[in-house]
Amino acid sequence: MLDDVNAQCPVARALEVLGDRWALMILRDAFDGLRRFSEFQKNLGLAKNILATRLKLLLESGLLQLQPASDGSAYKEYVLTDKGRSVFPIVVGLRQWGERFLFEAGEARSELLDSASGKPIETLLVRAQDGRVVGPEDCRRRVISHG
Amino acid sequence: MLDDVNAQCPVARALEVLGDRWALMILRDAFDGLRRFSEFQKNLGLAKNILATRLKLLLESGLLQLQPASDGSAYKEYVLTDKGRSVFPIVVGLRQWGERFLFEAGEARSELLDSASGKPIETLLVRAQDGRVVGPEDCRRRVISHG
DNA sequence: CCGTATCCATTCCGATACTG
DNA sequence: CAGTATCGGAATGGATACGG
């Protein structure tokens, strides 16, 4: 699907893995502590064959990993790899954007809290190395060829 | 598509708007300064009818806005609204994740720089209000009903 | 419990042709 | 240049039945 221009773009490549309808929802649940096939299925409400396909893709992409069940049962669990855990800021970004723009004032919604303090997580902002908050117009792109 | 459980989740709602195959790619290009129909079409390489549909959706969702062309031509331009501009951290998150995990060491790729300093943007991290970096296991979710 | 195999409906996409 | 109209094919999703 990626043409020559977009093949070099990290955003395009990331969306090849994360851009389908279910990947980020499954990761959201994984960040929430879900590990078992039936847990994902119950929480997402999708058909088992679809879930099976998506989980397989996430395993192949190295975002999830199969390991023996922690509770001693005979089955396996889907746990996050380092690569999968690193998607966390993206999901938090989606969450914060949704909270800000997609809910009415008094509408019920779920919120993410820092367990230690009980207070909401800081809003994600793009910053330069000196700490300035930067927007899209403050950035430029460069193509680098060697590491 | 959203069941009762997920209707309250800001991530799920965000993905209803941003989770299709093209929305975030179009926004990436918009962050890059693209404004015209033909610019998007050329850069993304998709069919015109599809681009038209996606742009219409982004207009309806309030992420983009039509305005008269800045160069005095007869046509209109698609420019980001505040709601659309606020997606920037998500796209940067995708970019950084892609850069880290989806490229070989010496492989050519594009990189995002702070224009003022010429140095790469800071890596996006999820932080608590006191500045601690937090991962998924350091968070919990709470459902709030009123404001 | 954890999937796989089938089958069908739907949605999405790309190519092309056409309009103002 | 900036779209709209139409069509066929591909991908995706849901329901159900079945097997280890």
Shape of chain A: globular
Nearest-integer average pLDDT of chain A: 93
Identify low-pLDDT runs of chain A: none
Beta fraction of the residues of chain A?
5-15%
Order of helices and strands of chain A: HHHHHEEHHEE
Query: What is the helix tally of chain A?
Result: 7
Bin the helical content of chain A: 40-55%
Largest sheet of chain A: 2 strands, antiparallel
Query: Which structural class fits the helix and strand makeup of chain A?
Result: alpha+beta
> What oligomeric state do the depicted chains represent?
homodimer
Rg from alpha-carbon coordinates of chain A: 18 Å
For the termini of chain A, the CA-CA separation is 25 Å
> Can you count the beta strands of chain A?
4
Question: Which two chains form the greatest contact, residue counts included?
Answer: A-B, 86 and 86 residues
